[in-house]
Amino acid sequence: MESEAFQLTKSEIERLVTLGSLAPSGGNIQPWRVVVASRTLEIYLDCVRSTSFIDVERYASIFSLGSFAENVIIASEALGLVYDFRFIGYESIDKPLAKFEYYRRSTVQVNNFPLLYNQIEKRITNRKLFDGKIIEQDLIDNLKKVATQLDGLCELWTISSEQDKKIAAQILGKADRIRMHHPKLHEQMFGELRWNKQQVEQTQDGIDIDTLELPTVAVKLLSILRYYKVARRFFPQKVIESMPKSSVLGCSHFCCLSVKCEINPENLFIAGRILQRLWLTATEYNLAVQPWTVLPFFLIRTILFPGSGFSEAEEHEVRELGQKIKTLFGMPQDSFPLFLFRISKTSDFPSVRSLRVPWEMFTEIKNQVEQCN
Ligand SMILES: Cc1cc2nc3c(=O)[nH]c(=O)nc-3n(C[C@H](O)[C@H](O)[C@H](O)COP(=O)(O)O)c2cc1C
User: Fold this and answer.
1) 25 in ligand 1 pocket by Cβ < 6 Å?
2) Are 176 and 169 spatial neighbours (Cβ–Cβ below 8 Å)?
3) Number of Cβ within a 10 Å radius of residue 256
4) Whether residue 24 has its Cβ less than 6 Å from ligand 1
5) Whose Cα sits closest to atom 1 in ligand 1?
6) Which among 37, 54, 98, 217 counts the fewest CB atoms within 10 Å?
7) What is the Cα–Cα distance from 41 to 178, expressed in whole angstroms?
8) What angle do CA 37, 101, 365 make, to 5 degrees?
């Protein structure tokens, strides 16, 4: 078919954007919007969903749009669609960040990511506790190779000794305490939680409390912590700071995806694409992945947008914690620790999946498309 006359079918659109939306996003906010017009598919930020304190300058959302786009790239290839993909840039909220242009359906099947395609619907955040079993080095080396794809912008750093994981847990605990004691962050963190099935099904976003894999007593504790004054008054700093310890000590490797160049929308978008490839590869290896990203996004705010919401003391502490993370991983000064996460060896998968809003809710189709396949 000639490219001018080419149109995506409704079922192709549905498949592409549904798989796109299975990308991870902080707090499961799903900050994307899609506009399709016959043979183009444009990805926008959603102006309402990308406004939290932690999503400074919508940077966390732009990162997630990169992961969304990566899923669409992988799905386009699997569907045999011939396309061009372009990152446009972040001009303003009403302009697309990235654009796919489709030309035809391929007669020869060329799929660069057949294995990753099968993992898109399996990928999940796994917050269970693990027993510290160590992942084979060849798998870790492969993940490190994946991280350097797309022009070597990113690098994957890992630690696995008990001593190093203890230090990581201390650093994360301090960042969690800053979050818990900051009124706005506290409010937004608890605003993301969905406490029962009814809330989960009504919103189809946010963090379903069951996905936190907490014992009943911890859920009760969390439900008390949601009252800011109670959290400040009755929970000593040390208790909050110790919370990440068992999760981090029980993982195999604690990891950091770093960016070598400047932190800007384009590099964040590319890093989001890389994260998605990494996470899908880890899924293929049956590894459990859980991000731990409060500190990196605090760092972005403190370093790139100082004076925008933290006190001087908080900014100072965040900078110190950022430096400690770099030292822990042995990272050079010009690298930025963008995404922290733990990976674990497991056959114990979460019983509950985070929901997504239906694709029609975030997709606008501008012209009549063929209904057939
Ligand atoms: C930028 C970003 C930050 C995240 N931060 C955390 C985090 O600090 N802790 C955590 O448990 N999950 C974190 N997640 C995972 C999301 O909560 C998860 O992707 C979302 O709830 C959807 O669930 P799913 O990954 O199982 O599909 C993060 C994901 C992204 C993309």
Assistant:
1) yes
2) no
3) 24
4) yes
5) 26
6) 217
7) 40
8) 20
The rounded Å distance from CA 112 to ligand 1 centre is: 27
**Distance (Å, whole) CA 265 – CA 271:** 10
Task: Look up the domain containing 63 and give its range.
Answer: 10-121+357-365
> Do both 117 and 147 map to the same domain?
no
The average confidence (pLDDT) of the chain is: 94
CA-nearest residue for atom 19, ligand 1, is: 24
Please report where in the chains the tokens 């660069």 appear, as a residue.
Answer: 112
Residue 37: in which H helix or E strand, if any?
strand 32-37
Q: For residues 199 and 89, what is the distance between their CA atoms, to the nearest angstrom?
A: 35
pTM, rounded to two decimals: 0.96
Residue 372 pLDDT level (bands cut at 50, 70, 90): very low
Compute the distance from residue 25 Cα to the ligand 1 centre, in Å.
Answer: 5
Q: Do both 325 and 235 map to the same domain? A: yes
Element (H, E) at 189: helix 183-191
Please give the residue that has the higher pLDDT: either 43 or 107.
43
Q: Which of 307, 359, 289, 297 is nearest to 71 (CA)?
A: 359
Q: Cα–Cα distance between 279 and 166 in angstroms, integer?
A: 24
Q: Confirm or reject: Cβ of 293 under 6 Å from ligand 1.
A: yes
Residues 75, 112 share a domain: yes
76 close to ligand 1 (CB < 6 Angstrom)? no
CA atoms within 13 A on the CB side of 40: 10
Say yes or no: 192 and 98 in one domain. no
Cβ contacts of residue 61 below 8 Å, gap of 6+? 25, 26, 29, 31, 45, 46, 49, 50, 55
- Are residues 226 and 190 in contact, defined by beta-carbon separation less than 8 angstroms? yes
Nearest to 79 by CA among 101, 37, 53, 109: 109
CA distance 169 to 150: 31
User: CA dihedral defined by 4, 6, 7, 8, rounded to 10 degrees?
Assistant: -130
DSSP 134: P
- Give backbone dihedrals phi and psi of 304, rounded to 5 degrees, phi first: -90, -30
What is the pLDDT at residue 79? Answer: 95
CATH number at residue 202: 3.40.109.10
